[in-house]
Amino acid sequence: MQDISNGLEPFPIPLIQSEAGSFETVIYITDSIFPNGTPISSFRPDEDEEQDDPWTCSCVRVDDDESALCTVRDSDTCDCVSGFGNFYTPPDAGFNQVLNIDALPERLPLVECSPQCPCAERCANRLTQRGVRLPLMVKQSSSGIGHGLFYSPPSEKSILPKGSFVSLYAGEYLTSPQARLRWASQLVNSKVGEGNYILSLKLPDEVWHIDPRYKGNIGRFLNHSCEPNCLIQVVRWGMDSLPRAAIFTKRSMKYGEVFSFDYANASGSTELALTLEKESHHEQDGGKRTKCLCSSTQCRGWMPFDESL
Ligand SMILES: C[S@@+](CC[C@H](N)C(=O)[O-])C[C@H]1O[C@@H](n2cnc3c(N)ncnc32)[C@H](O)[C@@H]1O
């Protein structure tokens, strides 16, 4: 079976293709890139100013105990953890960790130790950088929605805990003017509704947009639901300090369930979700709006999209 990640993720992610899909032309990437192809990890905010990166810890590596650094246990010794908090549970025997969603203040970005930190690659504060580690499959979702991402463990009894990291939402990393141009061309070149891939990260001092339509990872296969089982959490790490969108489960999930998040709540902002919810009842949207087929009892009727595009 085809691995949709082309070997770029730690484990293969099977694709069951049941109709000619536009994703055949998608170039798989594991972290976001700028439209010119440069990885966002190569971005430096203030190259001219000499300044210490506040998000690099000064932990000392301990031989033979790669995962002991930067865990909750050592929070007093790690600058990343003590400065920004650690909301990941310590790894279990299988090195699984979850995000403690209930303890995390709304809109607080997570700050992970970075590849520039001296701690080990398996440091317990580097969860979302380690790639997609869940048993997943991409296949046809319910009618009219296209493909979706499904939880596919070997045992039908497996339960995926709440707070599990699913994947980043990786794609081309766009400024607002770039995203506006992209959105307009996608509307012209596609059927109504097909172009709803751009995720807007609206943070207090910055707005970024991620478009995985042409270059992206499996995050692009999460469909919208008005009653979703996943959420988007902003995570930062590394010298670039740019916000990544990380997808976590917001409840436990069973074998065969399809992952979804609320497209209106992408940046973790309840305010934005409420605004879009109000707007979603208007049909004067120039044909940009798509009927929502999430079939939840909470369904708001229309799929949300960023009105500023
Ligand atoms: C980010 S993509 C999700 C993956 C997509 N299903 C695919 O096959 O590539 C968003 C697109 O999926 C479809 N979609 C996702 N959620 C939907 C929903 N709740 N109702 C209707 N269409 C949906 C729409 O065509 C939308 O433009």
Automatic annotation (TrEMBL):
Pre-SET domain mapped to chain residues: 55-131
Residues in SET domain copies: 134-264
Annotated compartments: Chromosome
Domain Post-SET: residue ranges: 288-304
GO molecular function list: histone methyltransferase activity; zinc ion binding
Keywords: Chromosome, Metal-binding, Methyltransferase, S-adenosyl-L-methionine, Transferase, Zinc
Transferase is among the record's keywords: yes
InterPro entries hit by this protein: H3K9_Histone-Lys_N-MTase, Post-SET_dom, Pre-SET_dom, SET_dom, SET_dom_sf
GO cellular component, one term: nucleus
Biological processes per GO annotation: methylation
Pfam hit, one: SET
Protein's recorded name: SET domain-containing protein
Organism encoding this protein: Kwoniella europaea PYCC6329
